[in-house]
Design goal:
The structure is a single chain. The chain is of the alpha/beta class. It is globular and about 55 Å long. The chain has 11 helices and 8 strands. Helix 1 packs across helix 2, helix 2 packs antiparallel against helix 3 and helix 7 crosses helix 9. Strand 7, helix 6 and strand 8 form a beta-alpha-beta unit. 45% of the residues lie in helices and 12% in strands. The longest helix has 22 residues. Strands 5-4-3-6-7-8 form a 6-stranded parallel sheet. Strands 1-2 form a two-stranded antiparallel sheet. The structure holds 3-hydroxybutanoyl-coenzyme A. The site of 3-hydroxybutanoyl-coenzyme A has 18 residues, from helix 2, helix 7 and helix 9.
Length: 284
């Protein structure tokens, strides 16, 4: 079931005993693979809840950007949480940042981790390759988790030898603000949210309404904090496209899973939303 806790504590069956006695493993050391918006957010909440975190990505400049984003987010949180005590706020920011280190080589860090959370590109082949490799280097007790937004956890876990220590942990953007983490098979939010976002695009493509009007309508009429086009830009059009393409491949006839020409074109032009400065809207 979906849960709202940020403490990574999980019970797993002990593989060394024939009985089904559950062994409680307390997660202390966490590696997050992928320094994008989601990975950085996951690293942040893990560090803020007292875990030591290694954030991994392919290049130092990506990791520097991730850490800068984490620091900015922590400062916003500290300003609110410690409004009466700025000194405690600064300490919270420093302490959380000191819990996070970075690395460009996942294989070299996973041996000492209790939990490895993957938040890389939404592509089964790429995820499988990563986990297959990490499986060789991680210690026996390490739990693997994927932040996949649309793929079957079993199909990712099958690339490893630890199917009994493999979880789906689906966070939401912006991770520090969104209280939900899903681990239920199939996930709920994206199954409803992504078809809604795509239906908004279709409405716009048909010329039924402008994107601005659709956004205003959903904010004022449904009480959503962002309209669908604002949210598409916030989440990233590439992420939405990957999800849609995967679902379309599984069920080509489903009208909810039909890809959109305009989203595909924007992704090809690298207009991915807020992160690249342009999506459905332009950003400074
Ligand atoms: N870290 C820390 N604080 C943040 C933050 C961050 N990353 N982002 C926003 N905030 C804070 C702001 O500082 C502000 O604080 P204040 O109240 O003290 O001024 C507060 O949150 C509100 O922010 P804003 O005034 O800038 O704007 P909003 O009121 O619109 O809130 C939002 C921003 C929380 C992002 C809100 O618009 C929202 O909830 N949007 C919907 C997000 C959503 O639907 N996410 C799910 C996407 S689906 C997904 O991720 C799944 C994936 O698999 C695709």
């Amino acid at each position: 079931m979906a849960f709202v806790t940020r403490q990574f504590v999980r019970s797993v069956s002990s593989s060394s005993t024939a009985s089904a006695t559950a062994k409680k493993i307390v997660i202390k050391h966490v590696a997050v693979i992928g320094g994008g918006l989601m990975g950085a957010g996951i690293a942040q909440v893990a560090a803020a809840t007292g875990h030591t975190v290694v954030l991994v990505d392919q290049a130092e400049d990506i990791l520097a950007k991730s850490k800068k984003g984490i620091e900015e987010s922590l400062k916003k949180i500290a300003k609110k949480k410690f409004a009466e005590n700025p000194q405690a706020g600064s300490e919270f920011v420093e302490k959380t940042l000191s819990n996070i280190s970075t690395n460009t080589d996942a294989a070299s860090v996973v041996h000492s981790m209790d939990l490895v959370v993957e938040a890389i590109v939404e592509n089964l082949k790429v995820k499988n390759e990563l986990f297959k490799r990490l499986d060789k280097f991680a210690s026996e007790h390490t739990i693997f988790a994927s932040n996949t937004s649309s793929l079957q956890i079993t199909s990712i876990a099958n690339a490893t030898t630890r199917q009994d220590r493999f979880a789906g942990l689906h966070f939401f953007n912006p991770v520090p603000m969104m209280k939900l983490v899903e681990d239920t098979p199939g996930f709920i939010v994206n199954r409803l949210l992504v078809p809604y976002l795509m239906e908004a695009v279709r409405l716009y493509e048909r010329g039924d309404a402008s994107k601005e009007d659709i956004d205003i309508a959903m904010k004022l009429g449904a009480g959503y904090p962002m309209g669908p086009f604002e949210l598409l830009d916030y989440v990233g059009l590439d992420t939405t496209k990957f999800i849609m393409d995967g679902w379309h491949e599984m069920d080509t006839q489903n009208p909810l899973f039909q890809p959109s020409q305009s989203v595909n074109k924007m992704v090809a032009e690298k207009k991915l939303g807020k992160k690249t400065g342009e999506g459905f809207y332009k950003y400074k």
